[in-house]
Fold this sequence. Notes:
Elements: H1 10-15, H2 21-27, H3 33-43, E1 51-55, H4 61-68, E2 72-77, H5 80-89, E3 95-97, E4 110-116, H6 124-134, E5 135-148, H7 153-166, H8 170-176, E6 186-197, H9 198-206, H10 209-214, H11 216-233, E7 238-251
Parallel strand pairs: 1-2, 1-4, 2-3, 4-5
Antiparallel strand pairs: 5-7, 6-7
Helix pairs in contact: 2-9, 9-11
Amino acid sequence: MKNGRVTATPRTRARSFDTAAALYAAYRPGYPNGLFAAIEELSGRGLAGARVADVGAGTGIATGLLHARGAEVVAVEPGDAMAAEFRRAHPRIPIVRGDGDRLPLVTAGFDLVTYAQAWHWTDPRRSLPEARRVLRPGGALALWWNDVDTAVPWIAEQDERIRTFFQVDAADVVTARNLPAEPALTTREVRWSRRVPLDAHLANHASHSAFLVLGPDGTREFMDAERARLNSLFPDGMVEEHYVVTLGLAVFTA
């Protein structure tokens, strides 16, 4: 990092999660039921019995929830430590090593390909054709991100502090997601929240790639300042985190 700005390459940031896989597994938020209901509605089919490839599966947060809804899921994950955490959490769900740019999956074998906060680590010039290849006719590609809900004032203030610290803005984040222009994605937003201890809230932030690349000293300094600010807002030590899941989904008819 230089002058607060993260200068690591996207590949370095993507692979930084292997340095903190246990932290990621323990503190990252899950996803609300409304997300999966929206996927079923927009794709035109239920998840129960659907053949799903969850790409960039990480420790299996989304994979496990898809499996719980009855999907036959195969996870794809490039990171050694993340895959190890996945196997510990989901020993009965198959996982293969690879990434979205080179899917190690059979052609026309899946009803749904999902990217839970992982599409931005791919090269869409490769990952989009790969998704088309492994999907059956009528299959769908679903991309989603769990964003903090900046309609909540204290979250907006914290988000601004983080963006200022790393010298990024909202436009940078949207651009970096590399959303495909074609096919057009049908979008849906789902709001939800969870209540967690303050330390868990800070650990969740520390599991993001920008902080992982920054390193422990700089991260600790930032989080200590955040703890001091939030202690006065949440004197009982419990934080109500608010999120907006942004879903984009496209159905491929051929």
